Amino acid sequence: xxxxxxxxxxxxxxxxxxxxxxxxxxxxxxxxxxxxxxxxxxxxxxxxxxxxxxxxxxxxxxxxxxxxxxxxxxxxxxxxxxxxxxxxxxxxxxxxxxxxxxxxxxxxxxxxxxxxxxxxxxxxxxxxxxxxxxxxxxxxxxxxxxxxxxxxxxxxxxxxxxxxxxxxxxxxxxxxxxxxxxxxxxxxxxxxxxxxxxxxxxxxxxxxxxxxxxxxxxxxxxxxxxxxxxxxxxxxxxxxxxxxxxxxxxxxxxxxxxxxxxxxxxxxxxxxxxxxxxxxxxx
Length: 283
Hints:
The protein is built from 9 helices and 10 strands. Helix 4 crosses helix 5 (128-135). By secondary structure, the protein is α+β, with helices and mostly antiparallel strands. The chain folds into 2 domains: 5-213, Dipeptide-binding Protein, domain 1, CATH 3.90.76.10; 227-281.
């Protein structure tokens, strides 16, 4: 596994945890020996499809249950996520992607090339950057269940950045049968391959959203995490941001990350987020 796995995963999960309201029902969770984390989100989750809406609450929900082909690391560099390796032809017109071993959707089915192609196709019909990439795309083709290609009409320098797009709309990967849903029609079956499973039968709009841990998801340490410190700055003078930081830190710690939660004010948070210095030097 790529040595940047931990950093890119932690960046991705921070985005997913940021402002997400996780409300696990005690009977369901405790029955599996899991801890219960309850949180009141900044908005009500009413739309489950992260492709038909740009609402942040739905984007955050997407990061809980879906995964992406690429993501950005702590230095905002694009790194493989679901992709194990990729190659670009010398003329910069053909990308060849190979998926990691062991990727599974929450229904137990393996993640295939066809799922990725259908998901990117649906996303590209709604997202502005996806639409620009589609204009330069000649075809997507499955070589086998784990390998697929993107053939371009002309070089598109932002191809990987598009596939690693961190905010709405995010190119989340869904099963092909779900991704075949019209891009303007909300999906009704929220199944992904991400770190948490959505318990739809316990979802009560305006009241609670329930997620449980996906035990098939590859853990950080198994993906090559070496215990690097992840710094989260909490703006204690901003109650909403502070509560979101506490939630993020708790979720990352439960996944085995070495989290350093540091208190500060809003000005400190903005200054350090825009700094190019490493975290041990005030960045």
